[in-house]
Amino acid sequence: MAENTVDTVSTTPATPLTLLGLGAMGAALAEAWLTAGHPLTVWNRTAARAEPLAARGAAVAATVAEAVAANRLLVVCLLDDASVAEALDGVDLTGKDVVNLVTSTPGQARARAAWVTGRGARYLDGGIMAVPPMIGVPAAGPYVFYSGSRELFEEHRTVLAAPADTRYVGADAGFAALHDVALLSAMYGMFAGVAHAYALIRDEDVAPSALAPLLGSWLTAMTGSVAATAAQLEAGDYTLGVVSDLAMQVAGTPTFLRTAEEQGVSPELLTPYFALMRRRLEADRANGAEDLTGVIDLLRR
Ligand code: NDP
What is the mean pLDDT of residues 31-44? Predict the structure, then answer.
């Protein structure tokens, strides 16, 4: 009977929030919050970008001050740290919960945290590990690193989780940016290696699409080195579980450089890393029994 039916559909409490910035990422976030049923106030420098969201029920503020005043929770997704300073200049932040999703450096995030908390607000920094099409699509695996006020994070974690999963990484406001940039830096190293690999085969009778699955699975197989390196760093022993030692790998580098030359490819993406490997070995021949982990020590200034 209908009156005895238990409603098992879980509903999340709607939290009103304000979003500044409707670029590619901001617009995707806005869509996700509207879809999840959170009352949303938006502001964008170019007002026309708010129109599709207004049609979906978002309130559109004419000024930053008006947008900030509308809700306690304020999410910022502008281009960079300078645009945040410009947009929030002179705006009353007293009692607000500011979540800054702008990509920044750890130092910029810490300075912005001090700037915001000095104006009477709580501060949470975020580093988005997703591109806009992944936002609001849990199966795509989007998430955001958060750091700063734990209280703010706990209080708003449900609404923050609507566009992407949440990972709180510490009270230090710079830690979200630190994690974000560390992951993306590793990604660029991988992209550099992939670029070199494709350059090697470019003028040969090897289709890029034939190399692609081989390259992808080889890189995946090599990701075991990520955890192995962490274990060596934490043990302070770079010879722990070594499979291919530094001496052997340095001895192999001329093959890579000669192949690049034979193929008419610049070795410029490989040479800086090879130079560090050689420097570590030359500093002490005993380092030859190590893994590549000693390179990390050479990078630290
Ligand atoms: P877009 O270039 O698409 O949008 C930039 C936004 O910033 C627009 O809303 C723009 O307004 C606004 N803006 C720029 N300068 C100012 C200013 N001086 N004052 C006020 N508003 C300003 O960038 P995204 O939306 O893609 O990126 C936003 C943030 O998200 C960035 O920090 C980015 O690094 C980060 N991010 C983006 C990802 C992506 O793949 N797109 C992935 C992960 C993080 P207007 O419309 O008027 O130009």
Answer: 98
* SS3 assignment, position 124: strand
The residue range of the domain holding 22 is: 17-171
> Which of 115, 123, 117 is closest to 151 using CA atoms?
123
The token duo for 230 is: 């962490």
Q: Mark which of 171, 205, 234 sits at the end of a domain.
A: 171
Residues with CB under 6 A from ligand 1: 21-26, 44-46, 49, 77-80, 83, 86-87, 102-103, 128, 131-132
- Which of 20, 25, 44, 104 has most ligand 1 atoms within 8 Å of its beta carbon, as the pocket-test mutant? 25
Q: Dump pLDDT digits (tens) for 225-279.
A: 999 999 999 999 999 999 999 999 999 999 999 999 999 999 999 999 999 999 9
Identify the pLDDT of residue 78.
98
Q: Which two tokens stand for residue 41?
A: 């106030």
Residue minimizing CA distance to atom 1 of ligand 1? 23
User: Partners of 154 in the beta sheet?
Assistant: none
Task: Mark whether 236 and 292 lie in a shared domain.
Answer: yes
Total number of residues shown for the chain: 301
Q: Which residue has the higher pLDDT, 247 or 7?
A: 247
Domain match, 61 and 120 both: yes
Considering its fold, how many domains does the chain have in total? 2
171, 202, 233: which is the final residue of a domain? 171
Do 191 and 213 reside in the same domain of the chain?
A: yes
Tell how far the Cα of 100 is from the centroid of ligand 1, in angstroms. 12
Residue 9 in this model has a pLDDT that exceeds 60: no
Q: How far is the CA of 84 from the centre of ligand 1 (A)?
A: 10
